[in-house]
Design a protein that fits this description.
Elements lengths: L17 E8 L2 E14 L2 E10 L1 H42 L7 H30 L7 E4 H11 L6 E3 L5 E4 L1 H20 L5 E7 L3 E8 L25 H11 L3 E6 L5 E8 L3
Parallel strand pairs: 5-7
Antiparallel strand pairs: 1-2, 2-3, 4-6, 7-8, 8-10, 9-10
Helix pairs in contact: 1-2, 3-4, 4-5
The structure holds adenosine-5'-diphosphate (ADP).
Length: 278
């Protein structure tokens, strides 16, 4: 029943048709979506304002993200823990057998080896997680975009990455983090391109405030999944599933962003946008 004026939204009548607002009402603060529409009634122009509470849908998304993360984590941890548990059990049973089995030594050796490899895998997995959680703040320096892209492209040895030169420019960014980001994108593109014996291409362009880098491949395209950027989501037998998350974190820490999409011609495309000034 409150008027637009009471809500402090007089300017909402003239703003964009849809926008997100953080508002505080007595008893309820949160994010709201404001939609505006014009209509005429009895020949007179009216404005319709619809205010919807977005807090719940946002929490729902957060809950789903947690669920996806937990699903991937459980899967990964179980893959290591289940064999460790079962082998420890059977080794224990062997030790208690009387008389001891003939090849006890060999079985013990083999079993312990599996336990060691599995726990090593779990350790690597946790290290990868720590790397994700502890990304340091970027330390901006001057990065020559062409030099950066050509250098990373040459690091890929499985195929020859084609670089199409864009404008000459430098940006303010953390060079080490940018290397890590582009190496990951090129590695993913190459993984995909190897499946089809296709190619990998990098090009860059400049919008007024942003640098845009595109890494394209002729692979089979992205898996149908909303989990691409969920930590530990991977479709590769020896994948870590942290590459894209790390890439996006680095891009966002620089005030930029990263999206993945399918190309209409087939294959996938990573679009990285970075501000030119830090
Ligand atoms: P990883 O490479 O270790 O699997 P990432 O986080 O880098 O981890 O990628 C997650 C998943 O996203 C990959 O397993 C793959 O399924 C998909 N993906 C990423 N890049 C591409 C690409 N260029 N083409 C097809 N699928 C991709």
């Amino acid at each position: 029943g409150a008027s637009a004026q009471e809500l402090g939204m007089t300017e909402a009548l003239h703003g964009p048709r849809m926008r997100l607002l953080d508002l505080a009402f007595p008893g309820r603060a949160g994010r709201f979506e404001l939609r505006r529409d014009a209509f005429r009634q009895g020949g007179r122009p009216h404005q319709l304002l619809v205010l919807s509470d977005l807090t719940r849908p946002l929490r729902e998304e957060e809950r789903q993200a947690w669920q996806r993360l937990i699903r991937v984590l459980s899967h990964e941890i179980n893959n290591s823990l289940a064999p460790i548990h079962s082998i420890a059990g059977s080794l224990g049973a062997m030790l208690h057998r009387d008389p001891p089995p003939e090849d006890l030594q060999a079985d013990l050796h083999h079993g312990l080896e599996i336990i060691a490899t599995r726990s090593e895998g779990l350790k690597r997995f946790l290290e990868a997680y720590a790397k994700l959680a502890k990304l340091p703040a970027p330390r901006p320096q001057t990065v020559d975009v062409g030099a950066w892209i050509h250098r990373v492209a040459k690091l890929e040895t499985r195929l020859s990455v084609a670089v199409e030169n864009g404008p000459n420019l430098s940006i303010q960014a953390d060079g080490d983090q940018l290397d890590q980001l582009l190496i990951n994108l090129v590695r993913n593109a190459t993984d995909a391109a190897m499946d089809t014996s296709g190619g990998v291409f990098i090009r860059w362009s400049v919008a007024p405030q942003h640098l845009e880098v595109r890494v394209e491949d002729e692979g089979l395209g992205l898996p149908i999944s909303s989990n691409l950027f969920v930590p530990f989501f991977t479709t590769k037998p020896t994948g870590s599933g942290i590459g894209l998350v790390l890439c996006r974190q680095i891009a966002e820490a620089h005030g930029g962003n990263l999206v993945m999409e399918n190309r209409t011609e087939g294959g996938a495309r990573a679009i990285l946008r970075l501000p030119i000034q830090a």
